[in-house]
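Renewal narrative, Specific Aim 1. Our central claim is that a sequence can be written position by position from structural information alone. The example that follows is taken directly from our test logs and has not been curated for this report. It begins with the structure tokens describing the chain, in the order in which they were read.
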């Protein structure tokens, strides 16, 4: 009886994920016929689900599109995903996997005599945070490969919680109302960034990943708990406890102000 109940819940969850994925595609016009999509495959639960949903949808051929995946290794950040697992995951879905390695440099205050060197102190003030640099270098690799392959779209695994957290961060730290859009058309290059998981809640992804047995990353990023995003996540949880409908209020506000479809 318990197993049957679990099976029913699993089917309901899978149906809900697919329905919200398809709704996001239709609402924000994310995918069209003849699209060539490059998926950013970090190896986390979000990118694994994104690739699974896109690969399965591509087989339906409505709309007609193709999918390839890119996993970027960061040489100087000590976290890992089992590349052989990602390769097997992609092969099972019939998706070609590309693997590239890059790196970036970090200026550490303890390695710089900034008290006696004004130029070094100024450089440190301008220095971006490791999370920003890591993200930018990965994005650069994706842009380059997408254009090499002739892809016109890049798909990223940000879910609805990511988008709402970013909206809060921008409001509190930058004094502006905006977030990561579901669709972002680039003006300087023939690429569009899409986020097909934009209407899916993180908790549903966590549950599905556990049910499917997605393999976790071997080593987590050393910076992932040392950022404003961690604080914002806790703040957002407090907001939801105060008002369980806050998610929908914030999402409707972003929609009403046209923040989920942008061009840059």
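The sequence written for that structure reads:
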């Amino acid at each position: 009886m318990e197993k049957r109940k679990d099976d029913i819940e699993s089917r309901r969850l899978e149906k809900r994920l697919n329905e919200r994925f398809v709704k996001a595609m239709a609402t924000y016009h994310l995918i069209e016929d003849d699209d060539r999509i490059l998926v950013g495959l970090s190896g986390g639960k979000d990118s694994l689900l994104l690739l699974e949903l896109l690969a399965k949808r591509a087989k339906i051929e409505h709309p007609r599109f193709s999918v390839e995946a890119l996993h970027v290794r960061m040489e100087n950040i000590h976290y890992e995903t089992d590349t052989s697992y990602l390769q097997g995951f992609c092969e099972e879905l019939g998706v070609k996997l590309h693997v590239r390695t890059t790196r970036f440099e970090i200026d550490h205050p303890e390695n710089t005599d900034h008290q006696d060197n004004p130029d070094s102190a100024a450089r440190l003030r301008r220095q971006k945070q490791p999370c920003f640099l890591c993200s930018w270098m990965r994005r650069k690799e994706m842009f380059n490969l997408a254009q090499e392959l002739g892809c016109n779209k890049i798909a990223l695994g940000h879910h609805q919680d990511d988008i709402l957290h970013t909206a809060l961060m921008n409001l509190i730290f930058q004094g502006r109302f905006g977030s990561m859009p579901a669709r972002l058309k680039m003006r300087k290059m023939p690429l569009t960034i899409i986020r097909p998981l934009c209407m899916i809640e993180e908790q549903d992804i966590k549950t599905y990943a556990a049910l499917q047995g997605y393999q976790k990353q071997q080593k987590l990023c050393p910076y992932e708990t040392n950022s404003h995003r961690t604080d914002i996540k806790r703040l957002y949880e407090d907001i939801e406890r105060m008002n369980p409908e806050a998610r929908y209020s914030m999402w409707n506000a972003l929609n009403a102000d046209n923040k989920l479809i942008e061009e840059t």
